[in-house]
């Protein structure tokens, strides 16, 4: 029974992170923290961006949940922390490696879902300004991007 509870908490925490990421991206990164996030919206030739500091910042709650849960024998906190870390890993793999190709892996990965994710992100990056951006989500993609992705291949250069 405990395993089921921990599994459900892990899944719920992972999914909740999508909404936390959406809110953070829309209201903080495109809000008062735009100065840190702006370089992500311009073509940056370097390996690192100021925007990468967000991953360090966002890892702190995950680490604290894992540490405190293990240290004080509160497994629910640890499970939530591991779910946050798993979301961070998914974000890194999909966003940094698959979408932006910061590390040249998964170049030929193709599915309707991956095409929709890439298209949604491409729409977000069409706007290089703080205001008027759209598509702030990451793993949950609006159905219109699935429809658009259905008509084009992953490697199509159209927005």
Describe this structure in words.
- With 159 residues, this protein is mainly α.
- The chain has one domain.
- The protein has six helices and no strands.
- The chain has helices at 2-32, 34-37, 53-71, 75-99, 112-126, 143-151.
- Helix 3 (53-71) runs antiparallel to helix 4 and helix 5 (112-126) crosses helix 6.
- The protein is globular and about 45 Å long.
- The protein starts with a helix and ends in an 8-residue tail after the last helix.
- What's the structural domain tally? 1
pLDDT averaged residue by residue = 88
**Which range does the strand content fall in?**
under 5%
The helix-strand sequence is: HHHHHH
Poorly predicted segments? none
Largest sheet: none
Overall geometry: globular
Alpha carbon gap, first and last residue: 47 Å
Structural class: mainly alpha
Number of strands: 0
**Rg:** 17 Å
Q: If helices are DSSP runs of H or I spanning 4 or more residues, what is the number of helices? A: 6
Question: Helicity range of the residues?
Answer: 55-70%
Key phrases:
159 residues; mainly alpha; globular
Question: TL;DR?
Answer:
By secondary structure, this protein is mainly α. It has helices at residues 2-32, 34-37, 53-71, 75-99, 112-126, 143-151.
């Amino acid at each position: 029974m405990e395993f089921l509870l921990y599994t459900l908490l892990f899944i719920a925490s992972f999914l909740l992170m999508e909404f936390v990421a959406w809110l953070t991206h829309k209201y903080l990164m495109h809000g008062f923290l735009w100065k840190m996030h702006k370089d992500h919206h311009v073509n940056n030739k370097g390996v690192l961006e100021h925007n990468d500091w967000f991953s360090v910042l966002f890892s702190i709650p995950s680490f604290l949940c894992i540490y405190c849960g293990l240290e004080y024998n509160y497994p629910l906190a640890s499970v939530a922390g591991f779910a946050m870390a798993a979301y961070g890993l998914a974000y890194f793999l999909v966003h940094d490696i698959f979408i932006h190709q910061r590390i040249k892996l998964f170049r030929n990965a193709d599915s309707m879902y991956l095409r929709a994710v890439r298209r949604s992100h491409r729409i977000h990056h069409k706007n290089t300004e703080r205001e008027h951006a759209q598509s702030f989500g990451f793993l949950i993609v609006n159905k219109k991007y699935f429809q658009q992705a259905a008509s084009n291949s992953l490697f199509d250069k159209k927005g």
